[in-house]
């Protein structure tokens, strides 16, 4: 018997090393069924917390990820190809929203990363930390100064660092090194200024411009036009998986099970007078039987993979949610938390197009297989060239001017003058959303994004089947402010390209957004053009422990439950008015510290 055991052990080790140090696809090969921490989802936050918890060699950590490994997938590594990921079912949760009344009942694609690293493995790479006042608002809402900008700064500094761009150009004036930290996620500006980068930046430097230049949007004051910072290092994508997980995969106290979906958490007894979750059930696919997996402590971390969607879904399937709704769905309620899945906020996005007098835009590359293949070959050679450039080089965050006519119709929901209403992202090519790349022509795209939406949505269970997609309703454009703010953003984009630097370059507005003239026409075109920029949050909001609402407390523990924490964008009390991935890293870093503090 002893020999057999040793032989088995040997086989197991050999298998692990042959495939990947501690990456498993078959749960039978896991060396144990009991772990100190089980992390549901190897997404953005899950990778961070796993890598921080396993710093203590006496702690064992298991990450269960529904999707595949990020290793060896070129489309994910190459920054230029980021926009193509959003069609690829092999590493996405291909969710679709419910019909949106604010969008003439259109449904909207709502993909999430289903892969190690979660959406940080498939996103458009944009890295923005936002305004200091936003985090101070978290501290004010929760009553916990631990969530303030000042106190969270150390987590920002330990999550990312500035690295040289792929072409090693001189970045003086494009980014401020002192705004950056020393963490594992690599952040850089794109290659040298191009025809449009110069026009964008020069427009922002016109004295008195309503779109002023900002030397680094990650200082805590992010309004204005900036060189876009992307999670790109050495010409390739830097994700939670490459930065946090890959370097520690060979450590013996970390185990990562991929291709397996957690279907529910199992409550067993109680602890400190609260129902206690100490086991998770998972299955390789819809046909597989649910296998129980024990844990000393179950820790639910949200998967940026399913993030604000997966968290409420798993909580509700586990009996944590609105008692009446769960009972109606045939799920035995364990804890009555009516806020689970509520208060979803997301940022609607619209593309505005112009035809341009240039043949150097990305359209030429996308259409011409010879150029595309040459760029691909160059990237494979030394991670340089066009394929190392991310999806945009410049961006800007703005407030709707005080004299804009929209203020005659709506009041301002964001009174803090440091927090943006909308973003403009500048692309030197046609950025396809509802319309595909036209067969001919060269284009400028200005993405208008409503970063401070007031519309509220939800995630609800469609069925008690854990493999069924939940009902996702972002409630896009269901408030007057949201409609008018996107209108104001489109008008701002049009004003932007009236600056003299665009003369001789811009030919004319293009597409149905472009041909809309009156406010009513623009609003009608917006309803047909809105997609998501995939920034939803707030479905498991953190609020003071004594509040009668909210899903998690200030330590991110699920309220009324023992042994369960939620870590991802769903816990944010308000939606960040920027791209949220930097804030997710910060939340996850602090969560790891809080967990370590209560464990020791
Ligand atoms: C989707 O990703 C897979 C890798 O998982 C790759 O083999 C395939 O070519 C991709 N498909 C498209 C259409 O990009
Ligand atoms: C959207 O659907 C609702 C409910 O079916 C219907 O009442 C409404 O007229 C539809 N709106 C549009 C613009 O089609
Ligand atoms: C926040 O920072 C202040 C000053 O740095 C410190 O005194 C306080 O203890 C911190 N609060 C928390 C909860 O970390
Ligand atoms: C980069 O450019 C700045 C300003 O033009 C200059 O002062 C600095 O010396 C340059 N750095 C290098 C390494 O060339
Ligand atoms: C960003 O700049 C690089 C040059 O460094 C250029 O190749 C690329 O097309 C630009 N990308 C966008 C989306 O503007
Ligand atoms: C932008 O301004 C710089 C500095 O004045 C100048 O060298 C460059 O040619 C300008 N670019 C455009 C597109 O106008
Ligand atoms: C893991 O999932 C991927 C994508 O669904 C599939 O191609 C692959 O065969 C699976 N691997 C195993 C070992 O089941
Ligand atoms: C762009 O136009 C110039 C001048 O007409 C031409 O020399 C060049 O080959 C064109 N480049 C591409 C990529 O088509
Ligand atoms: C990559 O290779 C190309 C072609 O040989 C060369 O021009 C370029 O300088 C190299 N880039 C880097 C960053 O090494
Ligand atoms: C704003 O309100 C005014 C006065 O009610 C109205 O005339 C105008 O049409 C509204 N604007 C839009 C774009 O609906
Ligand atoms: C919650 O506790 C805080 C102090 O910890 C107190 O200021 C607040 O009034 C309490 N709220 C409720 C609803 O009891």
Automatic annotation (TrEMBL):
The active site is at residues 535, 579. The keyword Flavoprotein applies. SUPFAM superfamilies: FAD-linked reductases, C-terminal domain, FAD/NAD(P)-binding domain. Coiled coil: none annotated. Its cofactor is FAD. Belongs to the GMC oxidoreductase family. It holds the Pfam family GMC_oxred_C. FAD binds at residues 123-126, 262. It comes from Phanerochaete carnosa (strain HHB-10118-sp) (White-rot fungus). This is Glucose-methanol-choline oxidoreductase N-terminal domain-containing protein. Residues 1-21 form the signal peptide. One of its GO terms (molecular function) is oxidoreductase activity, acting on CH-OH group of donors. PANTHER family: CHOLINE DEHYDROGENASE, MITOCHONDRIAL, GLUCOSE-METHANOL-CHOLINE GMC OXIDOREDUCTASE.
């Amino acid at each position: 018997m002893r020999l057999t055991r040793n032989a088995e052990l040997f086989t197991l080790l050999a298998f692990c090393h042959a495939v990947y140090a501690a990456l498993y696809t078959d749960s039978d090969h896991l060396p144990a069924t009991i772990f100190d921490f089980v992390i549901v989802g190897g997404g953005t936050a899950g990778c961070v917390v796993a890598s921080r918890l396993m710093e203590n060699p006496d702690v064992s950590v298991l990450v269960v990820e529904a999707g595949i490994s990020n290793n060896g997938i070129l489309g994910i590594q190459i920054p230029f190809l980021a926009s193509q990921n959003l069609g690829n079912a092999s590493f996405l949760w291909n969710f679709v929203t419910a019909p949106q009344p604010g969008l003439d009942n259109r449904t909207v694609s709502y993909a999430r990363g289903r892969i190690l690293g979660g959406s940080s493995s498939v996103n458009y790479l944009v890295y923005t930390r936002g305004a200091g006042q936003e985090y101070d608002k978290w501290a004010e809402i929760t009553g916990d100064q631990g969530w303030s900008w000042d106190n969270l700064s150390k987590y920002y500094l330990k999550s990312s660092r500035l690295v040289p761009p792929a072409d090693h150009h001189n970045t003086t004036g494009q980014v401020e090194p002192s705004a950056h930290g020393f963490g594992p996620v690599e952040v850089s500006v794109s290659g040298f200024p191009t025809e449009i980068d110069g026009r964008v930046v020069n427009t922002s430097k016109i004295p008195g411009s309503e779109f002023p230049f900002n030397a680094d949007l990650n200082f805590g004051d992010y309004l204005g036009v900036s060189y876009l910072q992307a999670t790109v290092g050495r010409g390739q994508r830097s994700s939670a998986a490459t930065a946090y997980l890959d370097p520690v995969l060979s450590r013996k106290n970390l185990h990562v099970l991929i291709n397996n979906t957690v279907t529910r958490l199992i409550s067993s007894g109680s602890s400190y007078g609260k129902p206690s979750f100490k086991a998770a059930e998972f299955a390789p696919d819809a046909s597989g039987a649910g296998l129980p997996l024990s844990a000393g402590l179950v820790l639910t971390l949200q998967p940026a993979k399913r993030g604000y969607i997966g968290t409420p879904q798993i909580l509700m399937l586990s009996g944590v949610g609105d008692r009446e709704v769960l009972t109606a769905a045939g799920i035995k309620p364990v804890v009555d938390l009516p806020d689970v899945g509520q208060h979803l906020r997301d940022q609607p996005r619209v593309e505005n197009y112009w035809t341009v007098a240039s043949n150097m835009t990305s359209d030429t590359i996308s259409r011409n297989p010879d150029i595309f293949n040459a760029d691909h070959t160059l990237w494979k050679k030394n991670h340089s060239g066009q394929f190392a450039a991310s999806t945009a080089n410049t961006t800007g965050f703005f407030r709707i001017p005080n004299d804009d006519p929209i203020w005659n119709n709506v009041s301002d929901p964001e009174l803090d003058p440091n927090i943006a209403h909308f973003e403009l992202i500048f692309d030197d090519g046609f950025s396809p959303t509802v319309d595909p790349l036209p067969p001919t022509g060269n284009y400028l795209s200005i993405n208008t994004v409503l970063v401070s939406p007031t519309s509220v949505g939800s995630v609800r269970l469609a069925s008690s089947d854990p493999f069924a997609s939940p009902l996702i309703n972002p409630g896009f454009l269901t408030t007057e402010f949201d409609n008018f703010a996107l209108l104001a953003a489109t008008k701002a984009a049009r004003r932007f390209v009236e600056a003299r630097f665009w003369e001789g370059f811009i030919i004319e507005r293009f597409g149905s957004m472009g041909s809309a003239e009156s406010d009513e026409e623009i609003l009608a075109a917006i309803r047909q053009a809105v997609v998501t920029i995939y920034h939803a949050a707030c479905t498991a909001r953190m609020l003071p422990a004594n509040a009668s609402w909210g899903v998690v407390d200030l330590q991110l523990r699920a309220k009324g439950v023992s042994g369960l924490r939620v870590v991802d964008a769903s816990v944010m009390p308000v939606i960040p008015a920027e791209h949220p991935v930097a804030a997710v890293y910060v939340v996850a870093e602090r969560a790891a510290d809080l967990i370590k503090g209560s464990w020791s």
